Amino acid sequence: MSYKSGFISIIGRPNAGKSTLLNAILKEKIAITSPKAQTTRNNICGILTLADVQYVFIDTPGIHKPKHELGKTLNKSAYSALSEADVIYWISDITQEFGSGDAFLLERIKASELPCFLILNKVDLLAKQECMEKLIEWGERYDFCEIFPISALHHDNVDSLLQTTKTYLKEGPKYYPDDMISDHGESFRIAELIREKVLYKTEEEVPHSVAVVIERKEETETACDIQALIIVERSSQKGILIGKQGDMIRSIRLSAQKELKALLHKKVNLELFVRVENNWRNRSNKLQQFGYSELKKDE
């Protein structure tokens, strides 16, 4: 029996459901999700290994018009994943109108000349007739290899998507061990999980101004002690994150601690600290320090 493998880049505008789809495919949360745009900041590799095929999915930051060096870096990450793919999943929110961001992405896809699946997500939010109209409308824009209406949140049509994807992959090696589901380590997942709680609990400019750095992690068989630093850009944001009498930071800590306990399967003692780093999203050295690829000056 021949073995197939390949790389599938998941691209799309912010908040289309890319990370939700990846988690649904893997049946495990490896990418954080939230209603906030730009939740995903790194290319996250998710690996699904079956008896006769290994799918390597690359979840990318939402492509958007950048306002900071960080935004440019995120777009660059998404474009690099596009160039390395065997198949592209272009995931779009079916409830949203086709816009200039979609037109820009479509030109990128055409230029790549790679097999592209259009995945229209959130079909559970529209009536069946509306979905049919949207499918026809999208199908007239480009000759996609496949068009899949799905609900990533409810895992609808995900198995069928995988079966069809397999037919587009070529014979190849196992790129990763059978038990590996992500290329990111435990500390990355812990930091992202803490940032997710910040995204859910804060509003306006605060979520976009936050980075999380794990400063210390010490484990025994039964417990894990973690110290994490939450970075913000202004003193006012630090005040919001700490909250009145420390109620906001306590809420974030308890929520993250609970989920970390489930992730690590042991007791977790989490300490959170907040530090101001002025305008860090526009400072290349800080982007690199906080885990985001440094952007070359000429890009």
What does this protein look like?
This protein has 299 residues and is of the alpha/beta class. It has 2 domains: 4-171, P-loop containing nucleotide triphosphate hydrolases (Rossmann fold, 3-Layer(aba) Sandwich), CATH 3.40.50; 186-289, GMP Synthetase, Chain A, domain 3. The chain has helices at residues 18-26, 69-83, 100-112, 128-139, 158-168, 186-201, 235-242, 247-264, 284-289, and strands at residues 4-11, 44-49, 53-59, 87-93, 116-121, 146-149, 170-171, 211-219, 223-232, 267-276. α6 packs antiparallel against α8 (247-264).
Strand content: 15-25%
Output the radius of gyration.
Answer: 20 Å
User: Would you count the extended β strands for me?
Assistant: 10
CA(first)-CA(last) distance: 45 Å
CATH superfamily of the largest domain: P-loop containing nucleotide triphosphate hydrolases
Look at the structure and give the CATH class of the largest domain. Alpha Beta
Tell me which CATH architecture of the largest domain applies here. 3-Layer(aba) Sandwich
- What can be said about the biggest beta sheet? 7 strands, mixed
**Mean pLDDT value:** 91
Question: How many helical stretches?
Answer: 9
Unreliable runs = 294-299
- Looking at the structure, the CATH topology of the largest domain is Rossmann fold
Sheet/helix structural class: alpha/beta
Number of domains: 2
